[in-house]
Every structure is written in structure tokens, then in C-alpha cells.
Task: inverse folding
């Protein structure tokens, strides 16, 4: 029994340790239409399964080199306890369409709903994977 408990504890800690190296930012959602994007134009195959994709602000855009990057993220906090448990993996498909960008990362509606119960800005932790 003790080895099983230790294995579960180590598994939990290894998932949490991964985020110690992550960056902190903010996230909001953006609504369709999502096309065309600055990364892939009008290609329908650019969107990953589950529509878990994002547009990034200037700090992550890297003169377009961010296109296709994948990030793992989780909700940390926000007004009225919006966070859902767990993480999501998202793909960068666009540059933030608003100037100035309202957050570090703009999540598709589906991606935002996967980590938050709210539609307001949230604080996130993310790491490139």
C-alpha cells in the first residue's frame, strides 16, 4: 500500500513541478470568425482537434515564429473562482487581432471554456511544449 501512495504522490508532484518553470500571464477569449489567420491564412486544417487554439500578443509573437507553437496552460485565478482543474494544450494560429492586445494570450471559445467557468479575464500559467 505504501509504494502505491508514494507513486501517486510522486506522479502528482511531477505534474506540478512542470509548471514551476512556466510563465505567468493573462488570458481572455476571442470569438469567431477565426479566419483568416496570420499564421495559416484560410486553411481549415490549421485548427487542432477540439478547437484548442490561441492568438498571442506581442510578447509571444516573436515576429511570426510563434506560429504552430504549442503551449500547456492552466487557469490560476480570476474573479469569482473561475478556474477549472487541469491543463489544456493549445496551438498558436494567430497574432492578437486587437491593438493593444487585451491579454497575453487570446484563447478560442472552446479553449477558454476548457479551463474557466467565466468569460472574464483570468490569470494563467503556461509553458511551451
Result:
Amino acid at each position: 500500500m505504501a509504494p502505491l501512495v508514494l507513486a501517486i504522490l510522486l506522479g502528482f508532484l511531477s505534474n506540478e513541478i512542470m509548471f514551476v518553470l512556466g510563465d505567468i500571464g493573462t488570458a481572455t477569449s476571442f470569438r469567431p470568425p477565426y479566419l483568416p489567420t496570420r499564421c495559416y491564412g484560410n486553411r481549415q486544417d490549421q485548427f487542432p482537434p477540439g478547437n484548442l487554439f490561441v492568438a498571442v500578443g506581442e510578447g509571444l509573437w516573436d515576429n511570426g515564429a510563434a506560429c504552430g507553437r504549442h503551449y500547456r496552460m492552466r487557469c490560476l485565478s480570476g474573479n469569482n473562482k473561475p478556474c477549472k482543474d487541469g491543463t489544456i494544450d493549445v496551438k498558436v494560429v494567430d497574432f492578437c487581432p486587437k491593438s493593444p492586445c487585451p491579454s497575453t494570450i487570446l484563447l478560442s471559445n472552446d479553449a477558454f471554456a476548457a479551463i474557466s467557468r467565466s468569460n472574464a479575464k483570468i490569470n494563467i500559467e503556461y509553458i511551451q511544449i
Observations:
- Residues 69 and 116 are 22 Å apart (CA to CA).
- Helices lie at 2-20, 58-61, 109-115.
- The radius of gyration is 16 Å.
